[in-house]
Structures are given as structure tokens and as C-alpha cells.
Inverse folding.
């Protein structure tokens, strides 16, 4: 029986490069490992575009379920799935916009149990307007704070990914490389990266982290 697909979750505040990173990461993983890798877009974006509005409080749970189900459907036909957001993001926005924490437990339990790696995108990219679901740069700080609090409260390991363009992608690859160990015979890049890290005998850390102790404490926990 084939191994269950490995899910890499990308979460973070709006306009922090999640979609671009998800696309690039999926392509690199497939090219460097030979594994079948796909990426799953954000369901909320399509929802807003179809209806021409943002969701109400009573519609949040269905959006979270749809995001989860889309990820699971992709996992049925792939070795690795890179998810551009997860139900955790819906839970965060429900908290901030509607003061509703009813989605927290289910979203966090799925994230902890199903996602092999959780990447949190840093707030180091400029905010860019893009569609109905983006509120403005002023919401990025509160969203980032709420995400970190939920990840810590539910013992979900995570790694911060920062930098622009290729640097962001390389940092993400460093963070996920250990999870891919043993999934496929080595090709190049990614497994050379793993060997180099093992030889150095030191943990991966992001030198540009905007909160140096936070993600390392979460990973140790």
C-alpha cells in the first residue's frame, strides 16, 4: 500500500507570498525528488470571486471544510501536496472578524495530525492589493499574532519562512527537507542539502527571523 501523501501547509497573513511560494515549492519538490507533487490553491479566493463578496460568519465553517476536502482530494493522487492555506486560516479570520473561536479545535487538530510541515510566511514582503479577501496592511500583524498563538496553544510545530523570491523558496526547502527523507530515491539538490545539514550537525534556523526564539521554541515543543 502506498504511503499517505505528505502535506506541506503554508499559512500566514495576507500578501505574504503564500501562493507564489506554494507553486514554486511544488515544482521544485517534484523536480528534485521525482515524487508526484501538486499544490492546492486557497478556496476562499475562488469563493469570493464567484460571489462577489466576502463570507459571513455562518459561512466560515463550510469554507474551512472545503479547503480541507480539497487538500485531501489532491492527496489521493499525489505523493506530496503543498497547500496554499488550510482550515487554520479560516479559524484565525473567524476569531478576528467575528470573535468566533468555534473553528479552532477542529482546524488545529487536522493541522497537527495531517500536515507534516507547517510553514509560516513572514511579514517581510510589501502588502499588495489583490481581490476582495484582502483587507489592508493593518491586519497582517494581528493575523500573524493570532496564528502564532494558535500554533503554540495546540502544539503544532512550524517554521518561519522569510526572504524574497529565490531566498524565500530556498528557506522553505531547508525547512521541509527532513520530512522528505526516505520518500524517494535521491535525485539531486534537496538530498544534497539534507546531507550537508546532517554533516554540519546543527539545527536549521532562519537568520532573518522576525522573532528568533518563537519558532524554535515551538519546534522543540
Amino acid at each position: 500500500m502506498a504511503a499517505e501523501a505528505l502535506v506541506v501547509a503554508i499559512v500566514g497573513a495576507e500578501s505574504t507570498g503564500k501562493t507564489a511560494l506554494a507553486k514554486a515549492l511544488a515544482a521544485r519538490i517534484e523536480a528534485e525528488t521525482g515524487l508526484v507533487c501538486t499544490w492546492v490553491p486557497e478556496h476562499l479566493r475562488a469563493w469570493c470571486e464567484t460571489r462577489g463578496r466576502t463570507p459571513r460568519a455562518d459561512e466560515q465553517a463550510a469554507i474551512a471544510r472545503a479547503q480541507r476536502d480539497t487538500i485531501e482530494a489532491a492527496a489521493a493522487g499525489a505523493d506530496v501536496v503543498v497547500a496554499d492555506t488550510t482550515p487554520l486560516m479560516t479559524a484565525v479570520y473567524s476569531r478576528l472578524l467575528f470573535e468566533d473561536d468555534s473553528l479552532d479545535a477542529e482546524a488545529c487538530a487536522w493541522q497537527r495530525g495531517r500536515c507534516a510541515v507547517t510553514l509560516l510566511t513572514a511579514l517581510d514582503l510589501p502588502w499588495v492589493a489583490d481581490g476582495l479577501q484582502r483587507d489592508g496592511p493593518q491586519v497582517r500583524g494581528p493575523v500573524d499574532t493570532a496564528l502564532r498563538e494558535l500554533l503554540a496553544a495546540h502544539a503544532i510545530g512550524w517554521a518561519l519562512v522569510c526572504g524574497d523570491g529565490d531566498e524565500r523558496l530556498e528557506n522553505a526547502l531547508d525547512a521541509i527537507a527532513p520530512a522528505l527523507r526516505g520518500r524517494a530515491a535521491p535525485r539531486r539538490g534537496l538530498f544534497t542539502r539534507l546531507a550537508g545539514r546532517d554533516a554540519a550537525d546543527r539545527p536549521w534556523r532562519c537568520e532573518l527571523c522576525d522573532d528568533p526564539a518563537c519558532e524554535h521554541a515551538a519546534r522543540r515543543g
Summary: The longest helix spans residues 18-33. The CA atoms of residues 95 and 201 lie 40 Å apart.
